[in-house]
Amino acid sequence: MSVEFSLLELASVRINETPCDSFTHAVAYAKAADALGFKRFWLAEHHNMQGIASSATAVLIGHIAGNTQQLRVGSGGIMLPNHSPLIVAEQFGTLASIYGDRIDLGLGRAPGTDPVTSRALKRDDGAAENFAQEVQVIQQLLQPSAPQQRLRAVPGEGTQVPIWILGSSLYSAGLAAQLGLPYSFAGHFAPAYMRAALKRYRAEFRPSAHLEKPYFILGLPVIWGETEAQAILNSSTGFQRIVALFRGEPLWLRPPIDIAQLDWSAGEKQNVEEFLALAQIGDELQILDGLQQLRDELAIDEFMFTIDVYDRDLRIQTLSMLARIKDHLR
Predict the structure, then answer these.
(1) Closest listed residue to residue 43, CA positions, set 34, 237, 27, 32
(2) Fewer Cβ within 10 Å of end Cβ, the chain: N or C?
């Protein structure tokens, strides 16, 4: 069976541009993915981060779904500690009522932001401890309601929007397995526990009404160039952003620069390399080879790519490259 290809979008903002510019490009990017046969287009949730405009995740999902035809559009993910389960069920029930069976609900346990921002979002500090219970509340709210049920998601009840567990830890892998839900691992920023999480997910998986056997998505970055040297140059945009993340600086997308000119310490360089341990950086054959190795070793069901480059045309050209190599993966 062939592996599926999907995309994770952060609505990244280039330096000296606006979120509106980012949203305009995201639509063009999604349309290209739709035409090329990509499976999903998920949007992340981040708050209080200059350079990332995906804070109103459900709103952006509707914007992308309304401008595409076949793509499944969803959240990668909704950070559940920031939201009440009822609101999430209502929002995604509304999306499903408008766009039918094209909506995915990916749920994450981390708040995805700093403590100051978490408090501003008005959820209690212990919300993450209730993650498993709140996932199950959302599941119930999206099912057909019982006659005497007092709490209903309207819209939402009966839509049965598919739920995914997102994570970067063994906890999330175990919960996805326990609930019999598909699992997406955040290898694009936390690759260290990927193999252990996948092993636990498959070993502990319990079939459910939602899923008969484990289904695993691996998120990872892809940076392509016509040559390896060009790919390395293109990757410097992401390197600059990750260094800025470690330093607590704005996360604008910046133009590529020669790697030798990057302003980073030896420790920062090592941290970036660990952060990007699963990144596929190279020409077309190198990326095909890297994905094939992961597919052979881990039997990945689906790859979900982040393409963190400055040049918007290059970003869409990378989709065409991925579409070319997809059928070559055994």
Answers:
(1) 27
(2) N
